[in-house]
């Protein structure tokens, strides 16, 4: 009889991997996380300028997992989203098109009462909350450690780590982001292409309040977004041709 090291081995302890681990643990399934970065770095307050738009369904999931007290102080509501296309600046440029999209949380009939369209959260806050949740739940984390290969046996999946250690479980999940090890082992292919664009991401402090409004402009060089954060700050995502 095969001895399992966990019910589920999850490659990647980022947002997706840690969320899955907490959900499995809450359902009585024993997960094990493997991540190439030291796990304590998830708790560091380092700010790299990146934030994420979180759908309400995802935030409800984190609330169900008991993470709301760790996340809500840093989550900014998106009550409205304004979307339009624009022009290159300059006196000779045509006027901005009058066509636009306006999304308002108050117009969503089937929403949870008082719920916004979504939330903006700095990645560092999300990482820290998930890491605290994983630690509190007693979920084992092998880090820094990397999945080197995965092979399928008749009664289990066998994971070989970069250190040479071999782990076995009935199921292996790839939450590695762009890492291809688990995906390739599962025979899942990808189709990709290159946009000749570069994204610049930063956070700015606003002179006036943003009112929970997210702005998205589709400019000739690529999308430009002004996304609301707490403390009257905004996350800028500026895409331009290389």
Structure description:
With 242 residues, the protein is α/β, with parallel strands linked by helices. The chain is built from 5 helices and 16 strands. α1 packs parallel to α4 (123-136). The chain is globular.
Which properties best describe this structure?
242 residues, alpha/beta, 6-stranded mixed β-sheet, globular
Main beta-sheet annotation: 6 strands, mixed
Secondary structure class reads alpha/beta
Terminus-to-terminus distance: 56 Å
Oligomeric state of this protein:
single chain
Brief digest:
By secondary structure, the chain is α/β, with parallel strands linked by helices.
Which helices and strands appear, and what pairs or packs with what?
Layout: E1 8-11, H1 15-26, E2 31-34, E3 51-55, H2 56-64, H3 68-71, E4 76-78, E5 80-85, E6 100-104, E7 118-122, H4 123-136, E8 141-142, E9 147-152, E10 157-161, E11 166-169, E12 171-174, H5 181-185, E13 197-205, E14 213-219, E15 222-229, E16 233-241
Parallel strand pairs: 1-2, 1-12, 2-8, 5-14
Antiparallel strand pairs: 3-7, 4-7, 5-6, 9-10, 10-11, 13-16, 14-15, 15-16
């Amino acid at each position: 009889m095969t001895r399992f090291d966990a019910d589920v081995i999850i490659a990647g302890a980022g947002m997706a991997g840690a969320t899955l681990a907490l959900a499995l643990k809450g359902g009585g399934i024993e997960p094990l996380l493997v991540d190439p970065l030291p796990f304590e770095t998830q708790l560091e307050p380092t700010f790299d300028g990146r934030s994420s738009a979180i759908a309400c369904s995802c935030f409800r999931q984190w609330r169900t997992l008991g993470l709301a007290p760790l996340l809500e102080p840093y989550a900014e509501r998106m009550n409205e989203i304004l979307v339009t296309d624009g022009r290159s600046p300059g006196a000779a440029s045509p006027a901005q098109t009058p066509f636009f999209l306006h999304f308002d949380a108050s117009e969503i009939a089937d929403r949870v009462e008082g719920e916004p369209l979504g939330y903006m959260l700095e990645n560092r806050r999300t990482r820290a909350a998930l890491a605290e949740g994983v630690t509190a739940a007693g979920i084992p984390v092998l880090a820094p450690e990397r999945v080197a290969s995965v092979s399928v046996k008749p009664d289990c999946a066998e994971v070989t780590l970069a250190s040479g250690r071999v782990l076995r479980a009935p199921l292996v999940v790839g939450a590695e982001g762009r890492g291809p090890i688990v995906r390739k082992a599962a025979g899942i292919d990808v189709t990709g292409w290159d946009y000749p664009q570069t994204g610049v991401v930063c956070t700015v402090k606003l002179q006036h309040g943003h009112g929970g409004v997210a702005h998205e402009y589709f400019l000739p060089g690529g999308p430009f977004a002004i996304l609301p954060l707490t403390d009257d700050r905004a996350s800028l995502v500026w895409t331009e041709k290389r």
